[in-house]
TrEMBL record:
Lineage summary: Bacteria, Pseudomonadati, Pseudomonadota, Gammaproteobacteria, Oceanospirillales
This protein's GO CC annotations: cytoplasm
Pfam (any one): CN_hydrolase
Recorded catalytic activity of this chain's protein: deamido-NAD(+) + L-glutamine + ATP + H2O = L-glutamate + AMP + diphosphate + NAD(+) + H(+)
Organism of origin: Marinomonas aquimarina
Name of the protein described by the UniProt record: Glutamine-dependent NAD(+) synthetase
Length: 545
């Protein structure tokens, strides 16, 4: 007996239960009729999309879910449908996976392990299940599990004890660097310790800052990967399972196509493209406008924007001032031409002069300082927002994680915008990603990558006048932000000067108020600003104590 399982690696819209349900029905019929699948498995919380957050608290959630389940039961036959959804059971909400066949719910599993760390808040919404769910599918005893369950030994061991011969694991596991390998090692361990094959079906797409890269895969009972769906590609990906009565174990998975694993630069770049594309499309923006400075951050952001939604929907605006170099003007124009986007040059000197003239009485008696620099950035922000309002284009900000960490950005200036693809990308990675993008096609001029970074808000200004080198800065930031190391622990590594470490950490702490007001953006590290790292703005914590 052969059972064909279709892994439905799909992109849903959070909150659109009606449309998501229609997609489940349509894809189930495609799996049945075009792929000859016996079973289709959808990701975690498919019907609501992921993460639904406080939509789970809405009083109308329960009737909408019940109506969705009724539609699936009524309209899909001759294929087993395994799908994730929230469900109210006796007044308590559970994260469920149900098996539907021929108008009946054959089994329903409630997620047992509820993550409540990093970007996850499951315990805010759900009660934990306690029992396994084993369903007979064409003679095979199939156990269900949901996402976090697989990270703990108990749920799979419990399913094995209850008779499971195959595990279907429904996921909404967001991307971060290196997570692909971690997942694979985890499933190898779970499969081999229980001698059970596991089908891992992951969500595909993006929701606000979270990106789901798909990459659904299958391991056999010994933990060997035998099927790998591609990353960042929605679709139905099938695997065949055989059941033989005279074999021990009776259930085995057949080898299929194994997609090539992406390297760090390729996976991060695709995450940025996916995150931006979904944000633009799901929020129905007409296009993107961004300030093109001639620097590497805006050049990389422009490339991502074009790859996400196409050059015809992207506008780049160069807004030169007195300190803008001819090199920057030349490079910005070349970037725009290479990528084929609409390009405008709007000098801001008349606007800055008007602001300065108006403010002259208030500034009398004060020397020149960063106020004048910030005024340039804020003028650019006003200009971009005016274009955004008029054309219905979203402003894409271009600041990177290194800058945002230490506050090297102007509130209501270059921080103005609706989304950022570099929000969680350290500057050193920006350089690597720029090289990677050029390997796909030359779009970022070489000297943009090699010249010293500068905000060009003052004569002969470069970033390292105000900051340590990015190689040093990013290492310290990684230790402090992503590894939660103290100042003394960082110093104990013996790599950095005392004053540099204390200064960087103090800047990070002082600028929490800025980051709270920054636009959302793609999360690519294990600990990004926003949902991951939540520190009080007002606090009396002292570094080094």
């Amino acid at each position: 007996m052969t059972i064909r399982i279709a892994m439905a690696q799909l992109d849903m819209l959070v909150g659109d239960i009606k449309h998501n349900t229609e997609s489940v029905i349509a894809q189930s019929l495609v799996a049945r009729d075009e792929h000859q699948a016996d079973v289709i498995v959808f990701p975690e919380l498919t019907l609501t999309g992921y993460p639904p957050e406080d939509l789970l608290l809405r009083p109308s959630l329960a009737p909408r879910i019940e109506a969705a389940l009724a539609s699936i039961l009524d309209q899909v036959h001759d294929i087993y449908v395994v799908v994730g959804y929230p469900r109210d059971i006796d007044g308590e909400l559970f994260n469920c996976a149900g098996v539907f066949y021929q108008g009946q719910i054959l089994g329903e599993y409630c997620k047992q392990k509820l993550p409540n760390f990093q970007v996850f808040d499951d315990k805010r919404y759900f009660q934990a299940g306690t029992t396994p769910c084993i369903v007979d599918i064409k003679g095979a005893k199939v156990g269900l599990s949901i996402c976090e369950d697989i990270w703990h030994p108990e749920p799979i061991a419990q399913a094995k004890e209850a008779g499971a011969e195959l595990i279907l694991n429904l996921n909404a596991s967001p991307f971060h660097i290196e997570k692909m390998g971690v997942r694979e090692q985890l499933l190898q361990r779970r499969a081999s310790e229980n001698q059970l094959p596991i089908v891992y079906v992951n969500y595909m797409g993006a929701q606000d800052e979270l990106v789901y890269e798909g990459g659904s895969f299958v391991v056999d009972a010994q933990g060997h990967k035998v099927r790998q769906a591609p990353w960042y590609e929605a679709g139905l990906y099938c695997v065949d399972v055989t059941v033989e009565e005279d074999r021990d174990p009776r259930v085995a998975v057949l080898a299929g196509e194994v997609a090539t694993t992406l390297d760090v630069e390729a996976s991060v770049y695709q995450a940025m493209v996916t995150g931006l594309r979904d944000y633009i499309e799901k929020n129905r923006f007409k296009g993107i406008v961004l300030g093109l400075s001639g620097g590497i951050d805006s050049a990389l952001s422009l490339a991502v924007a074009v790859d996400a939604i196409g050059a015809e929907r992207v506008q780049a605006v160069m807004m030169p001032y007195t300190y803008t170099s001819s090199m920057s003007l030349e490079d910005a124009e070349e970037e725009a031409k290479l990528l084929g986007v609409e390009y405008s040059v709007l000098p801001i000197e008349p606007m800055v002069t008007a602001f300065m003239d108006t403010l002259a009485p208030e500034f009398e008696g004060y020397g020149r300082d960063t106020t004048e620099e910030n005024l340039q950035a804020r003028t650019r922000g006003v200009t971009l927002m005016a274009i955004s309002n008029k054309k219905g284009y979203m402003v894409l900000t271009t600041g990177n994680k290194s800058e945002m960490a230490v506050g090297y950005a102007t509130l209501y200036g270059d921080m103005v915008g609706g989304y950022s693809v570099l929000k969680d990308v350290f500057k050193t990675l920006v350089f690597r990603l720029s090289r990677y993008r050029n390997s796909l096609g030359y779009v970022i001029p070489e000297r943009v990558i090699t010249r010293p970074p500068s905000a060009e808000l003052a004569p002969d200004q470069v970033d390292e006048d105000s900051l340590p080198s990015y190689e040093v800065l990013d290492q310290i930031l990684h230790m402090y932000i992503e590894q939660d190391m103290s100042a003394e622990a960082i110093l104990a590594s013996g790599e950095f000067e005392h004053d540099t470490v204390y200064r960087v950490l103090r800047l990070v702490d002082l600028n929490e108020y800025k980051r709270r007001q920054a636009p959302t953006g793609v999360r690519v590290t294990e600990r990004g600003f926003g949902r991951d790292r939540r520190y009080p703005i007002t606090n009396g914590w002292h570094i080094g104590e």
